[in-house]
Task: structure prediction
Amino acid sequence: MIKANNGNETEKVTASQENTFLNPTPMLDELENGLWPSFISGLKELAERTRKPILRGLLDQLEYSYQTKTGYWQGSLVTVHGYGSGVVGRRSMIKDKIPEAAEFHTFRVQPAPGLHYNTKMLRNLCDTWEKHGSGLIALHGQTGDIMLQGIEEAKVQECFDEINQAGWDLGGAGAAMRSAASCVGPARCEHACYDTLKLHYKTLTHFVSEIHRPQYNYKFKFKFSGCPNDCTNSIFRSDMAVIGMWKDSIQVDAAAVQTWIDKNSIDSLVNIVINNCPTRAILLKKGKMVIDNKNCIRCMHCINVMPQALSPGKERGVTLLLGGKNVLKVGTMGGTMIVPFHKMETDEDVQNFIHLSETIIEWWNDNGFDHERIGETIERVGLKQFLDGVGLEASIDMVTQPRSNPYYKSEY
Amino acid sequence: MIKANNGNETEKVTASQENTFLNPTPMLDELENGLWPSFISGLKELAERTRKPILRGLLDQLEYSYQTKTGYWQGSLVTVHGYGSGVVGRRSMIKDKIPEAAEFHTFRVQPAPGLHYNTKMLRNLCDTWEKHGSGLIALHGQTGDIMLQGIEEAKVQECFDEINQAGWDLGGAGAAMRSAASCVGPARCEHACYDTLKLHYKTLTHFVSEIHRPQYNYKFKFKFSGCPNDCTNSIFRSDMAVIGMWKDSIQVDAAAVQTWIDKNSIDSLVNIVINNCPTRAILLKKGKMVIDNKNCIRCMHCINVMPQALSPGKERGVTLLLGGKNVLKVGTMGGTMIVPFHKMETDEDVQNFIHLSETIIEWWNDNGFDHERIGETIERVGLKQFLDGVGLEASIDMVTQPRSNPYYKSEY
Amino acid sequence: MNTKRTWKTVESGPRDYQEALHPVVRKNYGKWHYHEMLKPGVLKHVAENGDILFTVRAGTPRQDSVDLIRRICDIADKYADGYLRFTVRNNVEFMTSDETNVELLIKELTAIGLPVGGAGPCVSAIAHTQGWLHCDIPATDASGVVKALMDSLIDDFKSLRMPSKVRLSTSCCAINCGGQVDIAIVVKHTRPPRINHEILGNICEMPKVVARCPVAAIRPEVVNDKPSLIVDNDKCMYCGACFGACPAMEINHPEHSKFAIWVGGKNSNARSKPSVMSLVAHNLPNNPPRWPEVTQVVGQILAAFKKEGRPWERMGEWIARVGWKHFFEATGLVFDKDMIDSYRHARTTFNQSAHLRF
Amino acid sequence: MNTKRTWKTVESGPRDYQEALHPVVRKNYGKWHYHEMLKPGVLKHVAENGDILFTVRAGTPRQDSVDLIRRICDIADKYADGYLRFTVRNNVEFMTSDETNVELLIKELTAIGLPVGGAGPCVSAIAHTQGWLHCDIPATDASGVVKALMDSLIDDFKSLRMPSKVRLSTSCCAINCGGQVDIAIVVKHTRPPRINHEILGNICEMPKVVARCPVAAIRPEVVNDKPSLIVDNDKCMYCGACFGACPAMEINHPEHSKFAIWVGGKNSNARSKPSVMSLVAHNLPNNPPRWPEVTQVVGQILAAFKKEGRPWERMGEWIARVGWKHFFEATGLVFDKDMIDSYRHARTTFNQSAHLRF
Ligand code: SRM
Ligand code: SRM
Ligand code: SRM
Ligand code: SRM
Ligand code: SF4
Ligand code: SF4
Ligand code: SF4
Ligand code: SF4
Ligand code: SF4
Ligand code: SF4
Ligand code: SF4
Ligand code: SF4
Result:
């Protein structure tokens, strides 16, 4: 059907050219070279085995995109019964040319927090997806969804019912609560200051209706990182970053510190640990390492370097950063610290957190514009106004320095 | 005439109450207490000696201001022949109440660069001023002018002619070139990387007409600091900060370094010098101090601590920072580096500098709004547009980091 | 939907994770003591009670076929007790308490074409976005760029020879779903949108499109008797935000949609604060199928960082230490005036000091 | 002007400096080698050729009478070869090559009431502005505040017991002619301007006044049949910028014009970059003649800095090291929500990180 016409055709007979089901895709085939696993090889293998026309269409359209340097999908509203989001609809703009991939909708499916699986649940998902859809799965989307990519509208409900029956639910899209991400946390990481998986699970279960029914100004994302290493990139990639934090002193196992020094030398202690502490809060005293915890800003660095010897303190909880997002309109925003420390042990702690989140989202719904992320709303109306609006106390922790201009309103 | 009525009257008989010429000024008299030299005592002494009504009026009005917490001067246009600025006119809003200080205009007089005097010129100025004016002189105004404070309009021309005859000229006011300031520089400071006094003198002589005839969008100030210590506060207080700079390596007198260490200890070298270098460009190698000049950012710190051992390099000149100003409308702005290095040795160097300044001011006159400082204009139209407008090359030295947003226009 | 539904939707939200946790994980949940990096891609976590868990991490194409996933499941069944997890960067992880399984895992993963690595001071997998494969607004294909790049970086994925973690992302439009990373490859348009007035009024909510423009360059106008929008080309800086709201604002162009390279982004709070990335190269062609120009520039940046970075120092921290001037020298890239910020907080990036390197 | 002029103006610009230079200065111009701080207020500069110059520095009231200036000249004639200079902070300096003159200078200066000091790690003289003495827009009297403050700080002026240089300024309106310093005392209004509609139209250029407002709170309106201006009190944040352009916008208020204290400004490039200062106290009363509340707060700040600052560390550098949280603890001041920036670049001051002190 589609013939490559960019004069680039290679003489080399690639594996794919031996296949009969697929049309030639000379440009895409270039991506079968090299040592990194090739999504093209995967797609071709899948297509050849299953002989699904939708996959042949997909490859033809992609090849055509490579040739013309142009994309051909257009958005389309596709949903399952009762939901307003969770399926990202795609129809081809060149279905006259390549009818086989006229539709190529995607399910966003919420995985388990921490992206843990047993093989049974994964195989089951594969089977359902191969039955109804294309058999192409993105593990995972940047927000953290399983993306089942490529299905026709007619099959959407049936397919969803089957995966829902197996225990899965859809994720967010549009102006709604979005799927969350959480780091591996307490499941396997010694740094975790709270149970990221549990909080992710409880929070997103609470907001399940808001995920399925877009009714916000714009998207709202949670991300849960167990410590300030922030392995979920929550700071720039979620509206509410929930980051593990401790309040007391770093726990030090003096013997293990000595073992570390013996193994790595005192030079390494100075050059790698002490010299990299952002506030110079680590001192060398008679060959021993002493942490000035009042000046420690919980950056994690020393703990990262010496995980066997140092750990976060015992009084643990979370710090909340609000308003992170990417570049649109205002330039990338990092989340702003709005709650320096919040315990996260009991169910009540969790409920308080969820309640605060609701209050915040409500404030945003009342004060935000259409397509305005909460970070933008706060920047527009002012952090002080936001704090007043949701009933939080101002604290010096929220800013890097007090204001440098006299342009504020205060009547006494 | 004016009686203090705030119930604060003190029983203590102060020196001034013995005088007969002045009215009681109980609140002001409080400022005769304490060990710091008192401007009130000075004013009173002057008034008693000279018996000038304008001084009695001034003290009465000031006392009344202290009582009512209100100022009573209003601006007024007063000039000398041929000039549009240089006299700051003040008329009293309460001249009905206190007629003796109905007028209290001020001459802004340009001193010599570096604020150097011989006693003859200063005595001469005092005599003239006592003859025509109040006898009150501010040494100096924040911009650097001698301020002859308090004269009536009728006497202004005569007085000016006399001081002008003695070699003085007026400084700036209004939307004009302003008087400049220069640090003591090569006159007495070992750090000076160029001749601040000479450049101040040549530049301001060149712009003499623009000082006297307001024709800019707003004020424009030069300040000349001989090195990055910036003893004239040029960064936040002048539109064009001219700061001494060197390009090659810091000059090190190894023997003097050793003497310093012997005197102050190696600990001091580490804690005071090495540890305070902003880029950690100073290393300790076998007890010796080694400067990594590629990473030195010319902050002056190590040179300040060890002036006998270290000095700026030999390839000297200036760096130019444009757009500094105080808080109005946009918040305080620091000058932005627009010329990293410019030689300042020959007359040609000076001429090039003046020529560049002219080009810049011309651009500002063309592109700025009324009452907009050049820093504001650049912020509004963009640094790139400014550079294009005046024909300067962009350089990484001008920014702390390249842009973090994709919101720029570039066609290829 | 014609089929009669027999199933009533359960709005369960995230999948339950208890049943997905490896038994050793479940047992030591929240009780880990420390970890070590045994070799590229292999972590050893030690629990408070002395339990040991080995993790083997491998790269994937992210856009996986069910065939590949089933193969991965086979391996998990054989060597990892039937459990596995994925990382936030699309790597797959197998956990086992049996040290002998580690080498077997590496062998089998290599056999099915999945490189083992991506942990510790190395280049991990590149954050993916959708591109021509699925998105409705892309100017390029993210998966293709990622594949081409990773082919050239695979040795840096499989070894521990970087000063610290290096995160990359590729985004197929300026929106940048890939986020802030050490090195980002992002589309940059260089022409204003061409407006399809024929369809605009019918398919777009005009006030929303007008509101979407960051520089207020769009205004309503009747064109050929139809209500439509026009763009003030002087103001427009080609961001493409309008296109996301309205497909008639055609911003993508096969030739004039280019690539830009950004460096120094960081999300972690380790040592320095999280930081946004900065523009260091642009006007790179969008050159499928292998985008050699992009690979070239990324290679230059990584080579300089590998050479000069100190242990634990992230890309942006290295640059902060040596200075941007040196960064451009060391990488051979060229600073130009478009790299001077001109947006809302531009002034805060101006060098308002005499601090200066020569 | 009725008198016939006999003199034709010479537009000479700055006064010629050659004749104003001390002979030893002239001889060693540009050839100084180094300096030492001998004792408070006394510097010793050594030239390349070994010439030595002693400088004695003393404080002045800045608002000087000709009597005081003549006395100063007498001293200069006696001990400094007839030369003197002033510093950018209103201190006066006498130079001599004769070491025996140093003590004599100190003695005579003390005798006429001028304290010797202000050099090196100490509190130097406070930058002055005009206030009720001369300005047309002040809410207070700068000279008075300065005198009261310096009375309490004179020992810090005359000694070398601060960690480093401490610069102060006082400004009688929010415009702050005093600039960025370690500690600034600046007026802060707390009510919108009261508008004198009777005179406004006659004495003010209305479009200029409208343009002057940073938050566009002013608009033209006819009031009592006269063209005038009105202020949107919701928008107005009491900056007083309009008052500078139009005396009918009466911003000053005897009770509601207050003082605010700012810290951490720095102009030098030594170590850290030049920095703007931050608000740390407000709502202090404007309380002539001695403003004890202001003196009190400044004293608290200086005491903490004196105790904790390290050698050569400026106020803002000390705070950067110990953190703002500690600054508030150590000084006993209280952070409040008005101290959160809300102006143009506010976002750049938000803590966009998890970096946190407890
Ligand atoms: C699929 C995914 C990329 C991927 O291949 O992984 C994606 C794809 C799209 N993103 Fe995204 N974004 C995806 C994660 C992100 C992230 C990363 C994250 O969530 O951690 C970001 C940055 C963080 C943030 O939220 O700002 C992100 C920032 C955006 C933005 C810019 C938002 C902003 O305020 O700057 C848009 C534009 C918009 O919403 O109008 C956008 C819009 C889109 C749209 C919906 C484009 C559109 O307007 O039609 C894309 C749909 C593509 C498709 O065909 O599926 N996407 N997008 C990711 C979601 C998969 C998932 O659910 O797991
Ligand atoms: C006299 C002086 C204060 C002093 O007592 O020393 C002063 C006094 C006034 N300043 Fe100033 N400024 C004085 C130095 C400064 C400085 C410091 C400097 O030049 O180093 C600044 C900060 C730097 C700058 O230029 O921004 C300064 C920033 C201002 C501003 C704010 C400008 C801005 O863009 O933020 C104004 C307001 C204006 O111009 O509209 C202003 C306006 C004024 C006016 C003209 C008020 C007015 O609009 O009527 C004051 C006249 C007072 C009078 O009665 O003489 N003055 N003014 C200083 C000038 C004396 C001299 O010539 O030596
Ligand atoms: C598995 C994973 C979390 C997950 O739930 O999936 C994870 C796991 C660990 N991270 Fe991470 N990080 C993971 C993504 C991240 C991310 C996000 C990302 O890559 O997109 C970040 C933020 C990156 C950034 O700043 O932009 C991240 C920043 C860190 C840091 C801080 C690094 C730094 O110095 O800036 C550490 C500390 C360290 O390396 O010891 C860390 C440390 C760790 C440790 C050592 C924690 C532990 O004790 O187990 C884990 C293994 C380290 C490794 O891979 O080198 N993890 N880590 C993610 C693996 C990604 C991958 O496959 O490459
Ligand atoms: C005389 C004077 C210049 C003039 O032309 O009038 C001057 C003279 C010297 N300054 Fe200065 N500075 C003078 C105002 C300034 C100012 C501006 C100001 O005070 O308003 C600054 C910038 C202040 C700021 O950052 O806001 C200034 C920042 C410095 C520095 C950097 C200090 C720092 O660490 O930040 C040095 C370095 C040093 O102390 O060795 C310095 C060093 C010096 C030296 C040591 C230079 C030398 O080798 O002779 C001179 C005597 C030092 C002293 O006073 O401690 N001078 N110096 C000014 C005296 C002011 C006064 O009477 O108090
Ligand atoms: S964010 Fe912290 S707790 Fe979570 S995986 Fe990373 S290092 Fe571990
Ligand atoms: S966690 Fe970070 S700030 Fe705290 S002591 Fe360790 S390195 Fe320093
Ligand atoms: S700015 Fe530099 S050259 Fe000028 S007086 Fe100060 S220290 Fe000396
Ligand atoms: S001048 Fe400053 S930056 Fe340069 S070496 Fe000395 S202390 Fe370091
Ligand atoms: S980066 Fe742009 S084009 Fe790519 S997936 Fe995200 S929205 Fe679509
Ligand atoms: S491309 Fe961006 S700047 Fe141009 S019109 Fe569209 S939204 Fe506005
Ligand atoms: S600070 Fe304000 S009131 Fe004081 S002199 Fe300057 S302009 Fe006048
Ligand atoms: S006080 Fe300031 S904000 Fe209020 S109207 Fe006047 S200029 Fe505007």
The first strand of chain A starts at residue 73 and ends at 76. Chain A has a mean pLDDT of 94. The pocket of iron/sulfur cluster (ligand 12) is lined by residues D 192-193, 212-213, 215, 217-218, 231, 236-242, 249, 251 (CB under 6 Å).
